[in-house]
Amino acid sequence: MTPLILGLAGPALTDAERAFFRSVDPAGFILFRRNCVDPEQLRALTDGLRDLSGRADVPILIDQEGGRVARLRPPHWPEFPTGEAFARLYDIAPMSAIEAARANARALAATLAAIGINVDCLPLLDVRQPGGHDIIGDRALGDEPLRVAALGRATLEGLREGGVVGVVKHMPGHGRATADSHLELPLVDADEAALETDLAPFARLRTAPMGMTAHVVYTAWDADRCASLSPRVIGDVIRGRIGFDGLLMSDDLGMNALSGGFGDRAAGVLAAGCDVALHCSGDMAEMEAVAGAVGTIPADARRRLDAAMATIAAAPRADYAEAIAQRDALLALA
């Protein structure tokens, strides 16, 4: 197995992808809107990925947050609210907001599990900051660390209760960034004292099964490298001060915050301390470059991967209708 999570080009595996994935044996796969046509097609695709990998629990990821970040959309799949909806309810009824977030996550899990997806890149634990770029914006669970942690924990629990692994992101915090890392490299020059606010939700949820790094430079910790490429940020901050020991993946290698060839990007995030490198585009030439730059997944990374997937091994499927009814009744209080 290689320490890679890879995308694919379209709604069905091509012969070239089958041969490549069989040879490379990636740790997991990630799906986007280009891969999702309808439930029947998507279930066949995820079943095919499991058969190809030979692992019933192979991670199959998606970004299904709600609002503008949703790979599954109507008419075949329901819309879900943004993180901001739960933050607003928290202002007037914190416990109701927590239960609404948990119910929402159970409904998300029911939707995903029905089509064979077992990992959702959620929750965001980025603390929303004044002046921060709107790339986080209404996706955030609030602007207070305790609120973000409470709603994030409920989201993780709801996903797990429905048989889906959650991914906390974007470590160690994207809320202060004034640029979109999809387009350019953000730089955060806050001092260490200020950054404690950003770390706090991640520290409270340090036992999360999976996490994702931020392609953001934090000058207080490493002025030369973004978090995904920084041994200091990953080793001292994420693994050390936060205390996170779950599976750590990079954000997408294809984002413009990173520079250089794709092989160098993949080797760089793994050398910095990420357990797996995430490559999303499904472009075969890029994937070949990435695969050519990595070796076999290290023992610690494989341990973390197996532990993360084991958290949902015995989880029942959540009842979608019940979860939606509970969520909507609670959100109506806001």
Automatic annotation (TrEMBL):
Reaction it catalyzes: Hydrolysis of terminal non-reducing N-acetyl-D-hexosamine residues in N-acetyl-beta-D-hexosaminides
A Pfam family matched in the record: Glyco_hydro_3
Stretch forming the signal peptide: none
Domain Glycoside hydrolase family 3 N-terminal: 25-298
An example Gene Ontology biological process: peptidoglycan turnover
EC identifiers of the protein: 3.2.1.52
UniProt enzyme class: hydrolase
GO molecular function: beta-N-acetylhexosaminidase activity
Keywords from the named record: Glycosidase, Hydrolase
Gene3D superfamilies cross-referenced by the UniProt entry: Glycoside hydrolase, family 3, N-terminal domain
Family: Belongs to the glycosyl hydrolase 3 family.
Record-given protein name: beta-N-acetylhexosaminidase
